[in-house]
Design goal:
With about 200 residues, the chain is an all-alpha fold. Helix 2 crosses helix 3. The chain has one domain. The protein has six helices and no strands.
Amino acid sequence: MFVEALQFLLRSVGGFLILVFLARFYLQAFQTSFRHPLGQFVLALTNWAVLPVRRVLPPLRGYDTASFALAGFTALLMHMLLLAITPWPFVFIAPLSLLALALVAALELFKMSLYLLFAAVLGQAVLSWIAPYNPLMPLLNTLTAPFLRPLRRVIPPVGGIDITPLLLLLAIQLVLSVFVAHLETAILQHVSMAG
């Protein structure tokens, strides 16, 4: 019971930190304004770690490498701690274990990126119905447009309603529930076998 509570705490705190570091990375990558309260919230939560790391890892071609590196480090540390408290016998320094941990951390970043996209698309869809002039809409439009625009070129509105957000949400759910979940399990099984 104690192990489950510790796993829950590690996943909750680690997942939240990964999400805010990735949110900062994507907000800057898509050149969205940090003047919105959501942008200010992300900055306030991440400045303590990003600003010192940025002295060592400066932005590369406009991308906030410090935020992305911190998200990756947090994912790696979270999975190392989660594996350390499991009863599986394995050796962290084995080459196969290190590779598997790096792959799981990369998969975690991909998964959390999909969660962020899912939340942005869902938020945009809901706000377009109930509050289309909400100040959050331009920020969400900037984040979702690169993914919705190609779909809108192929799929016309049905009865005057844009169904591309729904299709994108279904695609994200499919990737998360089928491909990501199975791949994560397969990689973690290799970690346990490496020990």
